[in-house]
Each structure stands twice: as structure tokens, then as C-alpha cells.
Model the fold of this input.
Amino acid sequence: MKTLLRKALLVLIVSSGCATISGQNSTDYTLPDPLLMEDGREIKTSSEWTQIRRPEILESFENNVYGKAPKPSKDMHFSILTEDKQALGGKATRKEVAVYFTKSKDNYMTVLLYIPNQRNGRVPIFFGLNFDGNHAVSKEEGVAIVRIQSKSSTDMPTIPARGAESSRWPIEMLIENGYGLATVYRGDIDPDYDDGFRNGVHPLFYSNGQEKPEADEWGTVAAWAFGLSCAMNYFEVDKDIDAKQVAVIGHSRLGKATLWAGAIDERFAMVISNDSGCGGAALSRRKIGETVSAINKNFPYWFCDNFKQFNDREDFLPVDQHQLIALIAPRPVYVASAEEDQWADPEGEFLSAYHASPVYELFGLKGLPKEMPKLSQPEMQGHIGYHIRPGKHDITGYDWEQYIKFADKFFKK
Ligand code: GCU
Done:
């Protein structure tokens, strides 16, 4: 009965193009309308969206949330470090590729790639950052243990065991379904602790005399997104990969980076957010689970400094996360939640995907229905997919099964 009442309380009033949402769980809030230009005019066509509104929203996210980042450098270059055509018992070719961020050979990230041996031409791939090192994704001995970063500026790094993260990366399942997999260790791009931006990619792009990013310049999440784009430059020259069919995927903090990468880099054909929560798929204005002030306090280096102005002032944010998802339109996007992951606000993740729908509809595409899907009942009829599964904050085989089904719909027409 209580749940019914709560549901009944969740009313959606569409007034002057803005959605005002109130419910027992969250305080009332008004979402900024993706289809209303900054000068108040309404967007009516997909070309107005692409030419006017999309750049406005993108710029606002850059200035206020993630920070501006450089584009991948023209001096970027690559080298194949290893290749094994008989990986996974002969089912796949495994490669390790160094992607050098600039002209120098000193700063690079290592892309670990698995390509199915049974293929006719180029293959679609899933591509995502990993938490613990490439050797933690795969159990195969041949995968190099890269420079694992410590968890803070004072700790010594501890090297995770081979395959420690493998439950999150079902390589064989992907290969059997005709997909390749590419992954990069997040610490190769920017270590995940606050060191005043002295390590990682930031200093490679400072202007003369600069010592840290400006208030509207990139934090660590944007740096990870930058790394994702750099890898995309490599995929474009690898003859085994269909660079027009790259699904970028990320869990949790790496899901935040994934959504941002998908928003700024339209070369990613599909974007998948797994339990990305605050600063990812979840609406900031709901203030449920992790809030803007909590994330900025615990991870002051993830976003740009300007984002801190919105600590406990979410309603003043010129954007909210449904607009981040809208920036991915008309490309397919999938948002997933876990029931016990209340810190990431599953309902906020759903609502954000739902409120991106009007932008997809401008392109004549279907978004999400209004009703939040029930547990383990994935919704993927349109260009926005969503599911919530039982269990904890994690990325599981069940999650991947849905992502493969969703990718099959678009990549295997
Ligand atoms: C913390 C953080 C989240 C993040 C998560 C993760 O819980 O508060 O924002 O998504 O770590 O990356 O696992």
C-alpha cells in the first residue's frame, strides 16, 4: 500500500517545457529542458538540436561539470607490443598496443585487445576502461602487468592478482558472440587519487607555466574520457576492428567517464553506463544516494572545480544528467542499475534516461516508456535501453547478456 501511495505521489507535470517532478523520496525539482534553447526558444527539429542546442548543452557540461579537455593530439602514435593469434585456446587473437599520447615515447597507455578468430572482415567491439590493470581483466599469462598505480599519493601500489577483475569481463562470451573486446587500465591515463594533477595526462597538455587545470578545465573523469577517445584513434587504423561499431562501456566511476566520452566523441556508436550514479546517469537534482557535495568532497579531483559551486545547490546547475544522455542521441545508449545500489540512485538513473527520450523522438526514434521497468525485465525496444537487476553495485554476466542483445540489434542488422 505504501509503495502504491508513493507511486501515486510521483507526479509529472509538464509545464512550459520543464518537467517538475515531486515524490516522497525526493524533494521537488525542475529539470532543465533539453529542448529549450538558452534564449528560451523551443527546438523543433533534429537539425536545430544538432546545430544549436546540442553545442549549448555540451559547453555547459564542459564549463560546469567535467571541464574542458584537449582533443587527442595530432602527434599521437601507436605500436603493437605483442600479438598472439592463438589466444583463448585458438578462439581469439590477443594484442597489446601502446597508444602514445604525444610525440614522446614516455607517456602511453596500453590497449589490451581480443579479436575473434572466426570473423569475416572487421568486427564490432566493446571497449571500456578497467579498474585494476589489463592483467586483472584476463587470466592469460601473456598479458603484461602494466605500471599499477597506488591508491593514494602516500601508499605503495599493490598489484592485483591476474584475473582479479575477470568476472567483470566475460571475454569468451563476447568472442563467441562475434565481438572483440578492448580495455585500458584507468591508471595508465590518470591515477585515481588527488595529487594536484601532477601525474597522468594533464601535465602533458598544460600551457606554459600552468601547474594545474583551471576551474573550467578537466578533472580525472574527463581525462579518462580523453583516454577513451585516444584509443578510438587507434581503432580507426586497426584493420581488424570496425571503428564504426565501437560500443563504449563503463562501470561506476568509469561509467561516468564513458557517458562523457560518448557525449563528446560522436565516433562511439553505442554507449553503455553500468551503475554510473552521481555525475553519471543519475539525476543530480534528486539528491538521493550520492549527492554533488558528497562526490566533490570525497573525490575533489574527478570533476572540474566549477562543479563545486553546486554543492548543496543542485537546482542552480544549468544542466542535469538527462541532458548528458541526450547528447548521445541519435546513437543507441543503455543505462543499467542494480537494486541494492542505492548510492547510485537506480530510479534517478532510469529517470535520466527517460527524460532524454524527447531528444531521441526528434530524430524519429523511440526512447524509454514512462514506467520504470521491473526487476530483471530489460527494456530495449527503442534506442535507449534500461534494466535494473537484483543485487549489488557491480557488472555481472547478466548485465553483459543484455548489452550483447542490445548491440546485436544495432550492429548485426
Ligand atoms: C564510490 C563513489 C561513486 C563511484 C563508485 C565506484 O562509491 O562514491 O561515485 O561510482 O565509488 O566507482 O565504484
Remarks:
- The mean pLDDT is 93.
- The chain has one domain: 31-411.
- Residues 46-66 form the longest helix (21 residues).
- The CA atoms of residues 308 and 408 lie 40 Å apart.
